[in-house]
Amino acid sequence: MSSGCFFNLGARLARYTGNETYAKQAAEAWDWLTAVGFIDKETWAVYDGAHVDVNCTDINKTQFSYVAAILTEGVAYMYNYVCSVFTILSPLFKPPPPDPEHPILTVNVDQCLDPLEIPPRLPHQQHP
Fold it and tell me: pTM for the whole thing?
C-alpha cells in the first residue's frame, strides 16, 4: 500500500506542478510494483503486501479495493499529466494496451483532451 501511495502522490504532484521529476518517480514506482508482482501484468490484479526481509518475493495475494483504487487514481493523474504536457506517453509511463476485459486500467492516448480547452480546477473550484 505504501508504494501505491508513493506512486499516487508522485503522479498527483506531476499533474499539479508539471514537474517531470515527480512523473519519473511515479513511473519508477509503477515499474517496481509490476516487476515485484504487486500488479499482475497478465490479469491486472493488484495484491496487498509482502515481507521486506525476503525482498518482497512472497506476495500476499489478498486483494482489497482500496489498493486498486489508489493505483487507479494515480494512473488517472499520470494520464492527465501526460496529456497536459503533450509528451504522449513517452518513456516516463507506459500503460497497458487497451483491454476490453479490464478497461479501468487502460489508457488510450488518442482520447486525450486538449488541455488548453479544459483548464485544470482545484478541488474547491466550481465547474463553469
Answer: 0.66
**19: three-class secondary structure by DSSP:** coil
Q: Distance from CA of residue 114 to its chain's centroid?
A: 20
Q: What is the pLDDT of residues 18-76, one digit of tens each?
A: 888 998 899 899 989 989 899 888 888 888 888 888 888 888 888 888 888 999 899 88
Domain ranges of the chain: 2-111
Task: Provide the b/e sequence for 33-69 (b: ≥16 CB within 10 Å).
Answer: beeebbbeeeebebbbebeeeeebeeeeeeeeeebbe
Count of residues making up the chain: 128
Instruction: Give the 3-state secondary structure percentages of the chain, helix then strand then coil, rounded to 5.
Output: 50, 0, 50
Q: Tell me how far apart the alpha carbons of residues 9 and 119 are, in angstroms, rounded to a whole number.
A: 21
